[in-house]
Amino acid sequence: MLHGQTPDPVWDPLNRAYRALEAKSYDRAVTDFLAAIQVAPDNASIRKDLGYTYLKIGETEAARDQFEKA
């Protein structure tokens, strides 16, 4: 980050979500993706990643909803 530049507020929850995915902590990843969506609700890639995470835990309806919103 450049000196004086404000960090993107979506970075922290997204970073936690991707680390949770790597650890196969899918419930934690869902929580962090939802936090990221609160910061950036129109970000389609976050919603797609959340959708794929929902699929991993068998939440097909929730996944479909996120893909639709993406």
What can you tell me about this protein's structure?
It is a single chain. With 70 residues, the chain is mostly helical. Helices cover 70% and strands 0% of the residues. Helix 3 packs antiparallel against helix 4.
**SS class:** mainly alpha
Sequence of secondary-structure elements: HHHH
Q: Estimate percent helicity.
A: over 70%
Number of DSSP strand runs:
0
Mean pLDDT: 94
Distance between termini? 28 Å
Identify low-pLDDT runs. none
Summarize this entry quickly:
The chain is an all-alpha fold and 70 residues long. 70% of the residues lie in helices and 0% in strands. Helix 1 (11-22) packs antiparallel against helix 2 and helix 2 runs antiparallel to helix 3.
Notable features of this structure?
70 residues, 4 helices
